[in-house]
Design brief:
Its main location: membrane. With 494 residues, the chain is an alpha+beta fold. It folds into four domains: 150 residues, no CATH class; 100 residues, no CATH class; 139 residues, no CATH class; 72 residues. It is built from 15 helices and ten strands. A hairpin with a 6-residue loop joins strand 9 and strand 10. Helix 6 packs across helix 7, helix 7 packs antiparallel against helix 8 and helix 9 runs antiparallel to helix 11. The longest helix is centred in the middle third of the chain and has 44 residues. The two termini are 30 Å apart. The relative contact order is 0.08.
């Protein structure tokens, strides 16, 4: 097993911890030895050829491991995952170690050639693609069966032996990003390139879209102010405003497609080669030979996958759509009940009751969307798609169809079946405002409260000990946070 670190040890100069692995407490020693050996073993022997350092806390626990990689290993990993980098001639090409000198800003001593997000992605990719060779079970746990080609990390997760794998934050990089992002008083655009280098392309695109969409809504807001203030009775004016919104929304999407293509090309994700994409970690099947690459990888019948899709997943999605329509009809029954109640009483309370069904329905829609998302993820994983891109495409299709019907079916029904414009305005306003409040609570207020809670817990822990536990405290803090909370607090001081 790799050499242990006490909780006061300092890191070796050539080891940079990038990813943390947390095993379940009480995991047998032979299991941890076997797992860490597979991580550090050579690729020719089925290992990941990474660096591992056990992190021993002051309580003596040895269930946390820090994972890193040498600079050479990261460069070879960049080639294997197909990272696209900029060349000296300003073109974008897939990185190849043999022609590394032709890439812009490359130098043997430049350890910043690969961004932190790329380094962590490479390590995560290598860990997730650790697959069983001749093992029939996880050593020490006969009930955790293995077969050639089975993902070791996935089996450890399903067996409860592996608690989680998460990237470790770099405090110094966070301080630099915080200063350039929101630490300055000067108002300006977000440093999307720096966000991309630290968090990756997905998070950078998310914040880039928020920035773009905020500016794109300004013309619509300015033009819509007179309609809200004067409340004109001439509906022709509203038709003009609706036509402008329709035209402007189309322009917004088309311009964003161009901006998104520019950013993804500059970051290299637009050109990543999918034809050499390796099997996703959750893909399982009998171990065989890929006829294109010649590598050993799991093989699964496409006929079985299609049967799962059309005989199980498709009927389930249709059943969920029917249930969504059934809930919608219950909502209209509640609307009719609230209207009858208002006509009988004609009071301020009865006027408020007119909005209650829409509010309840908006909450139910959000709950159904979240529950269905978990079911869709489970079904798509069960379909056993070979590639991550195929998995994401099927998942997006399932979620998009249900969310569209669940969120907008009632509005179409009111507009084109009931022809009730008053109810349409009331329902649309209530649904949008309620969903915005719920989303703001889930995406901002709740993570902010959890962040304050963890900060308070950190202060209490620091008062109990006069020792600066540095990396141990950071790992213990981050491992207790959810993925979303870690992202939310990342630009805060850890």
């Amino acid at each position: 097993m790799a050499e242990s670190w006490s909780f006061l040890d300092t890191f070796e100069p050539d080891f940079r911890p990038l990813v943390v692995i947390e095993l379940a407490k009480g995991t047998k020693e032979e299991t941890t030895e076997w797992f860490t050996k597979r991580i550090v073993d050579k690729k020719a022997n089925g290992g990941a050829q990474l660096l591992v350092k056990p992190l021993v806390t002051e309580n003596g626990d040895k269930n946390i491991y820090l994972v890193g990689a040498s600079h050479l290993r990261l460069l070879l990993g960049a080639e294997s995952v197909g990272l696209v980098k900029e060349c000296n001639d300003n073109s974008m090409r897939t990185f190849a170690y043999s022609s590394r000198k032709t890439f812009k800003d490359f130098a043997d001593d430049n350890h910043n050639f690969l961004t932190m997000a790329e380094c962590q992605y490479i390590i995560k990719h290598e860990l997730e693609n650790l697959r069983a060779k001749d093992e029939k079970m996880i050593p020490g746990y006969p009930q955790a069966k293995l077969y050639p080609g089975k993902s070791i990390v996935r089996r450890l997760l399903t067996s409860g032996l592996l608690v989680q794998i998460f990237p470790l934050h770099d405090r110094e990089e966070l301080k630099k990003l915080r200063h350039s992002w929101y630490g300055r008083v000067k108002v300006g655009y977000q440093p999307l390139d720096e966000i991309r280098c630290y968090f990756g392309e997905t998070i950078a695109l998310y914040f880039g879209f928020l920035e773009y969409f905020t500016f794109a809504l300004i013309p619509m807001a300015v033009i819509g102010i007179p309609y809200y203030v004067f409340a004109w009775e001439d509906y022709d004016k509203y038709v003009m405003f609706a036509a402008f919104n329709l035209l402007w929304s189309t322009v917004i999407l088309e311009v964003w497609k161009r901006i998104c293509a520019i950013m993804t090309y500059r970051w290299g994700t637009l050109l990543m080669k999918r034809q050499f994409e390796e099997p996703r970690p959750g893909f399982h099947g009998a171990l065989g030979i890929n006829p294109i690459t010649g590598r050993e990888e799991p093989v699964y019948s496409s006929i079985k996958r299609q049967m799962r899709i059309y005989l199980v997943s498709l009927p389930f999605v249709c059943l969920c759509l029917y249930f969504s329509l059934y809930v919608m009809m219950i909502y209209f029954d509640l609307e009719q009940w609230a209207l009858d109640y208002h006509e009988e009483n004609e009071s301020n309370f009865s006027s408020l009751m007119l909005f209650v069904p829409s509010i309840i329905y908006a909450v139910v829609i959000e709950i159904m969307n979240r529950i269905y998302r978990y079911a869709a993820e489970f079904l798509t994983s069960w379909e056993n798609h070979r590639l991550e891109s195929s998995y994401q495409n099927h998942l997006i299709l399932k979620v998009l169809v249900f969310n569209f019907l669940n969120c907008f079916a009632s509005l179409f029904y009111i507009a084109f079946v009931l022809f009730d414009m008053k109810l349409l305005r009331q329902s649309l306003a209530t649904l949008l405002i309620t969903s915005q409040i719920l989303n703001q609570f889930a995406e901002s207020l709740l993570p902010y409260w959890l962040q304050k809670r963890y900060k308070m817990k950190k202060r209490v822990c620091s008062l109990k000990t006069d020792t600066d536990v540095s990396i141990v405290g950071q790992v213990n803090l981050e491992k207790e946070m959810g993925t979303y909370l870690v992202c939310f607090t990342a630009v805060k001081e850890l």
